[in-house]
Design goal:
Blueprint lengths: L2 H18 L1 H4 L3 H16 L5 E7 L3 E6 L2 H6 L7 E4 L5 E2 L1 E4 L13 E8 L3 E9 L7 E9 L11 E5 L5 E10 L7 E12 L7 E2 L1 E3 L7 E8 L8 E11 L3 E5 L1 E8 L2 E7 L8 E5 L5 E10 L6 E11 L5 E3 L1 E3 L7 E7 L10 E7 L2 E6 L5 E4 L24 H9 L7 E10 L26 E7 L7 E4 L2 H6 L8 E3 L8 E16 L3 E3 L2 E7 L5 E10 L4 E11 L6 E11 L7 E18 L8 E15 L4 E7 L15 H5 L4 E2 L1 E2 L3 E2 L5 H5 L2 H30 L6
Parallel strand pairs: 2-28, 30-41
Antiparallel strand pairs: 1-27, 1-28, 2-26, 3-4, 3-27, 5-26, 6-15, 7-8, 8-14, 9-13, 9-15, 10-11, 10-14, 11-12, 16-25, 17-18, 18-24, 19-23, 19-25, 20-21, 20-24, 21-22, 29-40, 29-42, 29-43, 30-39, 31-40, 32-34, 32-39, 33-34, 34-38, 35-38, 35-39, 36-37, 36-38
Length: 713
């Protein structure tokens, strides 16, 4: 989440709304105060495209559990969500988002609140009893008043913390009534407390007490140690508050493709859905597959989110595991890789995001009200209520614990439901990036050797996204400086570039190996050249091998030189059927040569070789319509768009995918037009100067040679 960018975006939207409200400012002064009082809520409500009515059965403290369709339309931090009362005044709320259990951990999600009471001792005594056999028995007695506040769980836990690093003690606890002659009630008889260093978990300092409503407590500790325990005493009462349940939200499948004995699936992730678990459903009855999840998109940067195994044994009651714990995702897509091995792909596979269902806690002061949400144009509100719920892993004691517990008391907090969701009539539907949707300078389309026709869709926020394919990268320069988007009037449109937004697997053609000196040399050719990649995946039927290798490449630098990229060992452990992965620094090559030292073993036979290609994405701020992606002018300088200065603002909104046509040669391409370009003109002048210098030097050399005297006869 780019908080700073989203804040700027709201400021821009608010600025536009303020300009629209200028006529109202010039209204008569008599009505000015009333309009000013309602101005901010009126502007704020225009930032949210959807709304739903609040249906509260009673007034007072209330809780609204947010359904999946609202979560999918909002940002992960729910910044673009607000509550309004019937008078359009903003209602403060706190978000109870639940607490996430550690990945793979069992148990319920909850918040532990603890009451803690440190008593003031009324009486303390020490006695020592000498015995005929064994060491003396030391007895320490402590009396203190019980807390005025009742335990939230109905009972207290006595915590005894001696200073000694090692001890064993017998403990008795008595409850005392009012008056000196009141009989003592035995609460704990012959209990034990101890601390044994060097033994893991060998410590017991807590003693649960039965319910007791008397005014005083007496604690008696007995030991055989030659020292007094002198413990610190306190009472605690801990309660785990359940914080929301879990729901499964189906994820839309963007693409499914096979490669490298794997199934690769791209999933769309709505902004407000940040899964704790990925649930996989399939019609395949019995299976056991390794699965990996990757974060994709400009913010995801191809980061690994989680890996594990899903499996099922079909029976009357199927047994298995169909959920994968995930780290928080940031990109707008998930890439799922399922290792099929030699098994067929899973049938009718579907995916769901398992999330903690958040809720809003607020006060209903009057009937009526609206929940407005979506749009991604508002910054997170700063309500004081947020401090009522402690952060995860925080210790809450005393009255703070009591206050937090009240938020989960059904008798205190009443449920609120929602009416049907419908468009907000006050919503300002202008694209959030309308300020950036203007053409740049004109260009000469003739200097670009290739183009790809594209159709920009109507995007609610004015942002669209186009993935650059491997065929495009083969035409473009390595720095992508010769990439432009132009309309029919040859005006270029500003864009932002995410250089490594996604990856794809491209098959390489493998020529029969040339064997010399017990070494096999394989020539690997990509389907388009040159190709930029950072990983090779080599698949072979050989069950085991461990051989030295050298990987060389013909680098795409115009000279056709071959250089060594990597040396190492190509190895597959016995029983591991997965393809062998070779990672290297990103390189742009026309072809590869893999030299494998076989020794006296037979050459390896590769049934497939694939390269992982790093694919950029273009983020375009342009109105809907037909455009051209222009490529292939290596002497062009990189474009400089002022859009780059508000990169965070632009990438904070959701982008619509662009429909792209096939790559084709530019029919208007002209070599003479390229020669008129600054880069080629300077190159031509340089070559002309060099040729002229060579000719002049040749003439001077010839003249000097003619003037040399003949050798004496």
């Amino acid at each position: 989440m780019r908080r700073s960018g989203t804040t700027r975006l709201e400021l821009l939207a608010a600025g536009a709304l303020l300009a629209a409200a200028l006529p109202a400012i010039a209204a008569p002064a008599a009505a000015g105060d009333a309009r000013t009082a309602a101005a901010e809520p009126a502007e704020l409500r225009r930032l949210f495209p959807q709304e739903a009515e609040l249906l509260a059965a009673s007034l007072g403290l209330s809780r609204l559990v947010l359904p999946p369709e609202i979560l999918a339309a909002c940002r992960p931090d729910l910044s673009d969500l607000r509550l309004f009362d019937a008078q359009e005044k903003e209602i403060a709320f706190l978000v109870d988002a639940g607490t996430a259990a550690p990945a793979g951990a069992a148990g319920h999600d909850g918040l532990e609140v603890t009451q803690r009471y440190a008593p003031q001792l009324r009486e303390a005594a020490r006695t020592e009893t000498r015995r005929t056999s064994g060491p003396p028995l030391r007895r320490e007695t402590f009396e203190f008043a019980m807390p005025d506040t009742a335990s939230q769980t109905g009972a207290w836990v006595l915590v005894v913390e001696p200073r000694a690093a090692e001890f064993v003690a017998r403990v008795n606890v008595e409850g005392l009534g009012k008056g000196a002659g009141a009989a003592a009630l035995v609460l704990v008889k012959d209990g034990s407390l101890f601390r044994l260093p060097g033994t893991p978990g060998a410590e017991k300092l807590r003693l649960p007490l039965p319910p007791f409503g008397g005014p005083r407590l007496r604690v008696i500790l007995e030991t055989e140690h030659p020292f007094w325990l002198q413990p610190a005493l306190r009472l605690e009462s801990a309660r785990v508050l359940e914080r929301g349940g879990r729901i499964a939200v189906p994820l839309r499948i963007l693409s499914v493709r096979a490669g490298d004995r794997r199934t690769l699936v791209d999933l769309a992730r709505p902004p407000g859905i940040v899964p704790d678990l990925l649930r996989v459903e399939t019609a395949t009855g019995t299976f056991d597959r390794k699965i990996e999840a990757w974060d994709e998109g400009p913010a995801g940067a191809d980061a690994a989110l989680g890996s594990g195994r899903i499996y099922r044994v079909a029976a009357l009651v199927p047994v298995g595991e169909d959920e994968l714990p995930l780290r928080p995702a940031r990109g707008d897509r998930l890439r799922i890789e399922i290792d099929d091995g030699d098994s067929p792909p899973l049938e009718n596979v579907a995916f769901s995001a398992v999330i903690r269902q958040p809720s809003l806690i607020f006060t209903v002061a009057a009937a009526g009200g609206l929940l407005r949400f979506g749009g991604g144009r508002a910054h997170p509100p700063r309500y004081d209520l947020v401090s009522l719920l402690p952060p995860p892993a925080a210790l809450v004691t005393g009255k703070r614990a009591q206050a937090a517990a009240l938020l989960y008391d059904p008798a205190t907090v009443r449920p609120v439901s929602l009416g049907p969701i419908h468009p907000n009539p006050a919503y300002d539907g202008a694209p959030a990036l309308a300020f950036a949707m203007h053409p740049g300078a004109a260009l000469d389309r003739r200097v670009f050797s290739h183009l790809r026709p594209i159709t920009v869709p109507a995007s609610p926020e004015g942002l669209s996204r186009l993935r650059i394919e491997p065929a495009d990268l083969a035409v473009l320069g390595d720095d992508l400086s010769d990439l432009r988007v132009a309309d029919d009037a040859s005006r270029q449109w500003p864009y932002l570039l995410a250089r490594e937004a996604a990856t794809d697997l491209v098959p390489l053609a493998v020529e029969a190996p040339e064997r010399r000196d017990n070494t096999s040399r394989y020539v690997l050719r990509p389907p388009v050249s040159p190709l930029r990649f950072d990983r090779l995946l080599l698949d072979t039927d050989a069950p085991y091998f461990d051989r030295a290798f050298t990987l060389s490449a013909k680098i795409a630098d115009g000279h056709g030189d071959e250089m060594v990229l990597l040396r190492g060992r190509l190895a597959r452990p016995a029983g591991d059927p997965r393809p062998v992965s070779v990672d290297l620094a990103p390189v742009r090559a026309e072809s590869l040569t893999l030299a494998v030292e076989d020794g006296d073993d037979a050459p390896l036979v590769f049934r497939s070789v694939q390269a992982r290609v790093l694919l950029p994405e273009v983020y375009l701020t342009a109105p809907a319509g037909r455009y051209a992606l222009l490529l292939g002018a290596p002497d062009q300088d990189p474009p400089r768009y002022e859009l780059e200065r508000v990169r965070d603002v632009v990438l904070a909104v959701q982008a619509a995918p662009i429909d792209a046509g096939p790559l084709e040669a530019n029919r208007d391409y002209s070599v003479s037009a390229r020669l008129k370009g600054s880069g080629l003109r300077q190159t031509a002048l340089l070559w002309a100067a060099l040729i002229t210098a060579v000719v002049v030097l040749a003439l001077l050399t010839l003249r000097l040679a003619r003037r040399e005297p003949a050798p004496p006869g």
